[in-house]
Amino acid sequence: MPVSSNYQAQPRITTLGDGFYDEVAPARFPKRILRFRNQRWAERVGLGSLDPTEWESHFARFEPLPDNLTKPLALRYHGHQFDTYNPHLGDGRGFLFAQLEDDASRLLDLGTKGSGTTPWSRGGDGRLTLKGGVREVLATEMLEARGVNTSKTLSLFETGEELMRGDEPSPTRSSVLVRLSHSHIRFGTFQRLATLGDAAGLEKLLAYSIANYFPEIEGADRVPKFLREVTRRTAILAASWMAAGFVHGVLNSDNMTITGESFDYGPYRFLPTFDIDFTAAYFDHGGLYSYGNQPRAVLRNLVRLGESLRPLEPNLALADVLGDYKTILEREITNRTLSRLGVVPNGETDVALMSALYTFLDERRLGYDALFFDLFGGVREFEPKEPYSGHAWDVLREALELYEPTDEPAPKPCTLLIDEIETIWSAIAERDDWAPFEAKIASIRG
Q1: Catalytic residues
Q2: Which of 269, 298, 310, 392 would staple 360 via disulfide (CB 3.0–4.6 Å)?
């Protein structure tokens, strides 16, 4: 295979030993039709020179990459799902396919979704619908464009099987997706070992995590330092969702990684209008993971991670270690929101501006994204029009008049609301027309 000179195979997960994963075999698909190839990220990990046949062999047939994992690995973990602990989790329709470094020398994982059954499939078919694959491509592209630390979709193949699903018209088309992630170590990976009483395994996992993702942590107090750094990264992630108007939908502890990276996009939504009670998952009847509850849900999962580390640090003071979460969260929400507004932070007036912004959004119910496109750069040259009127607007306008614009160019208006996604999918499902999908990707990338 003619890999680029910057391809750096780093199959480090095997140093943990087989107690952390199971070797599995990939599914064999009747068809392999390439629907998406992320060339810009392929270049960054030394895989950009693969020709179409080679791309298919590695990302649809899953033949090993050079000097990398010889067999795919389904990782083991537990987790809280909608506040209920589930000890029967693990990679049920995906696996870790390879590890490699990017052009910034970061260790990255190539993982799959829809690649077949594993010991953790729990009676499922191990497959991914094509609609699910299309939705994940769109999510990762939009979130990356909005500055969210997200997994990247590297590849999507349609696979020629007919799948039965209860939540969409069936039979439906199938796919296999490959994602590029900074880590596959989940909060639930630690929870599993703590539940099993495996202190030695916890120590090994902590050492692996620090060596590969937090090398700046040295010496004594590794456990609180580790948890504090995970807390910092996770608070930034939660803040980035809030500023982007993104609702993940399924913030279970097995869907959170130690590197603070967003991934696994099922019933996600972007806010149509500002609504703290907006939910993404049709099955989230109580709004546990609503837009406004996301920061709280993330903090709960951090507490659970901390509790799972107590076998290594019995006196771990969670309130102290997690104490900076709220401060980091609020600071990042403010900074990222001001960045979306295209104005320079002003310190003492930022809190008042944020309050005025949310009051106006809540009162007028205009499109959440539309406000940031309309008001980018402040209000000094903005010509008010409906719905920019009324008392709440007057307060927001007065607050914004204190702000200078940044040097950043105004972004091209681009949204990803559920109606747009459904229209894109309808063109594919009804006419096999991929032009709207490809046009949306081009629009997101600008």
Answers
A1: 254
A2: 392
